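May I ask for a single protein's sequence together with how it folds?
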Amino acid sequence: MTLQRVGADTPYDEIAAIIAADGCVVVEDLATGLVAQAKAELDDYIEKTPFGPGNFAGEHAKNVEGLVGKSEAAHALMIHDTVMAMADRILLPNCVHYQLNYTGIMHLGPGTKAQDLHRDGNIYPFRHPCPPAIMAVMWAGSEFTAANGGTVVVPGSHLWEEERQPSAAEVVPAEMPAGSTIIYAHNIIHGGGANTTDKPRTAVSLNFSLGWLRQQENQFLTLPVEKAKELPEQLQRLIGYDFGAPFMGAVNGQNPHALLEEPGAEPGYRSDPELERAYRERVNWLKAEAVPPPPGVVPTD
């Protein structure tokens, strides 16, 4: 299967249909100026961050996380209309609210080795195939090529059984110009490529997840409350200042967004009738089979 590519003006339903069929899609030139601005705002953090050791791709790679507190342009990428439209279509069928799960820069310098192929959804114990728990959006801060470490994907692998592994012929590089993005469901097999060039490859990685799951990145500790108050309300709610599901995330019996509002807000209820109704209608796969831990990982009692 090939990796499909579409333009920035492609209808949302068409993009979502490709993701449903293939598990991934490249949207070219979706936010060229905005991505360039975000990279410019984050370049100093990249420069100051040490290489390695081995968190994503070894001693020649840099990873900068906590982007909500580091770049206003990145805020706009997090709530970009196309991104939100895809999250609505991919995640909302199985939750009532989705959330920002992870934010990071993947900066692969010359000499970076290829990352092990994996599924982002493996952080949660659901056996594949299963409904998507995560939607990932990888923005190209620089051009992605097969030679410079551009992300590689296995289209169609979101529908595979847990044990199936790809052949070399099934692994496709997500080549795309800077300002483009690849959007993929959590159960697609993928990984960072090897950088055999003399220039770095930079990506802005944003993951969104079902609101009733624990976030990979603890947004509450990454960003002080006073800084959270300065964010657009849509982003405030995405990082966790909202109910994740009925009775999930309340603070003193209230919606956590009350912490960011003006003093004097009326006491609320620890859930919401409309949210409870929607949750009962949508979330119907809670009997998903847990996946045993990988070899060498000992589960705790």
Remarks:
- The radius of gyration is 19 Å.
- The first strand starts at residue 5 and ends at 7.
- The CA atoms of residues 63 and 106 lie 5 Å apart.
- Residues 297-301 have pLDDT under 50 and may be disordered.
